[in-house]
Amino acid sequence: MAIASVPVLKGAASERFEQQMKESESRRGSVDFTKSIPCLMKYYTHFFWYIWDCKWNCTPKLMIKNSDILENDLLAFDSELLPILLTDRSKSNATGEPHNIVWGTDNYTSNGEGYGEWDEISVPAISGEHGLILQPRVNKTKEEQEHRSRDKAEVFTPVWICNKQNNLIDAAWFGGTAPFNTENEDNTWTTSTERIPFPTLDGKTWEDYVKDTRLEVSCGEAPYLVSRYGVVSGIDIDIKDRIGILDRKLRVIFSYERSN
User: 21: Cβ–Cβ under 8 A, 6 or more apart, which residues?
Assistant: First the structure.
């Protein structure tokens, strides 16, 4: 079982992030998230607002143009982010010593020492002249995709199936139908433009929805959590049409905290 860990900003990265958020808030008006939702969601929501503001009001320092987020771009944006993302939190917490996640495959052994299946991934191993080693599945060759499917049982779920299954969960949670979109017969969906209705028939609030714990097992690129692009097609998905669990929570926060 794979669990998508959540990065926590520290030190200079946190200070720069907070400053960016203050500048962003000054443009749209101050919103106090801490009174109603967990601090973790506050940071994700602030990051959402920062990207949104950059889309309309500024030139963002980190440009994401396709399915592949380049490690060298991450380092240039903030040198502390990549080490945070590589941290193996389960092993580090268990041993009391810092550890990174391992490669978990022998596909990279041809690159030399430090690229073995059980070697920990270091920042130098995936940056600099090695900055293009890591690729999302959609950018890999068909032959490599088929090899990983046979060897690792690696299969990526089309976004329309993720949407259908997330809708099933939401339909049960809301006690009726999922309010975020309507599924079409051609495996597309039509996003609802209405505000997500709260409270539910059984009295649950929008804060309850945001705080509801949901876990994606064997997450791979985590298409059930976030849907920035289709992991099979590689096609970008517009913000308003995204269907991931986190995407939906951010939409709810955007709607209700914005109005407060």
Answer: 46, 49, 50
Give yes or no: residues 168 and 255 share one domain. yes
136-182 pLDDT tens trace: 767 666 777 677 667 766 677 899 999 999 999 999 999 999 999 99
Query: Does residue 57 have a pLDDT over 70?
Result: no
* Structural domain range at position 106: 69-134
Of 96, 83, 97, the closest CA to residue 126 belongs to 83
Q: Is residue 146 part of a domain?
A: no
Q: Which residue has the tokens 């602030």?
A: 46
128 and 164: one domain?
no
- Please check whether residue 163 lies inside any domain of the structure: yes
Residues 181 and 110 in one domain: no
Q: How far apart are CA 229 and CA 100, in angstroms?
A: 26
Among the candidates 101, 134, 167, a domain finishes at 134
Residue 218 inside a domain? The answer is: yes
Question: Which residue reads 């339909």 in tokens?
Answer: 171
Give 55 or 25, the one with higher predicted confidence. Answer: 25
Where does residue 251 fall: left (phi above 0), alpha (psi -120 to 50 degrees), or beta otherwise?
A: alpha
Domains in the chain: how many in total? 2
pTM: 0.65
The mean pLDDT value for 204-220 works out to 87
User: pLDDT-based confidence at 56, cuts 50/70/90?
Assistant: very low
Say which residues have a Cβ less than 8 Å from residue 179's Cβ, sequence separation at least 6. 170, 192, 194, 196, 197
